Amino acid sequence: MIVQKYTAFNFDELSWDMIAELPRDTPLILPLGSGYDLNLLASQLSNPPRIGLLPAFPFGWRGSGLELPDQIFIQYILNLLDSLRDDGFSRVYCLAPSGFDPQSSFAGAFSASILRLPNPTTNAPKNLLPPDSERDKVILIPIGHTEQHGFHLPLSVDTLIIDAIAKGTQAILPARSWAMQVMPYGVSTHRPSFAATMNAGGRAFEDFWVAVIDSLATRGFDRFYIISGHGGNTSFLVNIVKYAGERHRRIFCATTGLHTNGSIGAEVLAKHRTSKIGGMGHACELETSFMLHLRPDLCNMKRVVDEADFVATPDYYMDWIEAGSLMANPPWDDDTKTGAYGAGSHATAEKGKLWLEAAIQEKADHVQQIHEQHERREQRRNEGYGLWGKFKK
């Protein structure tokens, strides 16, 4: 019997136009955790010529180390798989460890999309959850995304950058912060414009991360910093921290709009950028510089297309640190032909190193402020400030 050989490729290491050119019967696999036998996977799929592996989903299912309610977890996954189906792919699956069986009628339509294989690993990193000894630290929750970044960058840009920032922050403040594993999937409301862009869906995204905070707060953690590498997550993260603060009155949960855009980051960006306003938006001078520093092997600078033809008005324009009072969400293809916003040709690895250092310093400063906020508020509460003296909780 001749067994057909297959080629496995990492979906998020390609650019969006490369994904757009794939045959639509190419199997695309979203694994829960890692450590699966790809030969067994190929056999289960009848040995196709190629298999696309999406970034591993880090947690949420039973046995992952951080369990969430079935319906909340499954809706997130379903929305991601539907993103691929919307692009026309017909063989889209979630790869789960043997024994994975969501106990929910909600999952009925989902079962046909699940492949199950033995998994020799624990299916989740050993450091997935902060141990009890970390309860007095700020828990860093990095969220990236898998989405198009023009012709010259891979789909993994947002995830790689925010993961590096989270790890760097923990490295310089090990006694005050603890970084969770990065989540490679967020929200892209512009998903239909360019192939390969995933979308967890805004409502499912909010429900998922509120449930994560619920789980950690129940275990005694009380300081959280949700950091994002993807702009499309931002408005939903604001809602998440509001919900979390209402549900858990003794925690301090914060987020920011992207990274490298506070007082520390803004100064360093302005000092070293060479593009004009409009040159830093998406797959731009900033993100391309980060990638040239972090993963130059995934950058194809021969394919850079600068795009700064954004329909701008005084209170609505595109740049990394956006200004103006207008907020809107027009189709991305109104303002970009390739998926990029900005001047990627201005990027250098040297700028990427400087800006990464600034981003880490900025997050470290925020960690210190979160500690101060929590400690001062707890002191007031414990002293009976205002209604805390009458209604202690």
CATH topology assignment of the largest domain: Rossmann fold
- For CATH, the homologous superfamily of the largest domain is named as Creatininase
Count of helical regions = 9
Structural class: alpha/beta
Q: How would you describe the oligomerization state of the chains in this entry? A: single chain
Q: What's the SSE pattern?
A: EHEHEHEEEHEHEHEHEHEH
CATH architecture of the largest domain: 3-Layer(aba) Sandwich
Order of adjacent strands in the largest pleated sheet:
1-3-2-4-5
**Overall pLDDT confidence:** 92
Number of domains: 2
The number of E-state strands comes to 11
Q: How much beta, percentage-wise? A: 5-15%
**What ranges have pLDDT less than 50 throughout 5 or more consecutive residues?**
none
How would you portray this structure in words?
With 393 residues, this protein is an alpha/beta fold. It has two domains: 7-117, Rossmann fold; 129-311 and 335-393, Rossmann fold (3-Layer(aba) Sandwich). 33% of the residues lie in helices and 12% in strands. The chain is built from nine helices and eleven strands. A five-stranded parallel sheet has the order 1-3-2-4-5, sandwiched between helices. It has a four-stranded parallel sheet with strand order 7-6-8-9, with helices on both faces. A two-stranded antiparallel ribbon has the order 10-11. The N and C termini lie far apart (69 Å).
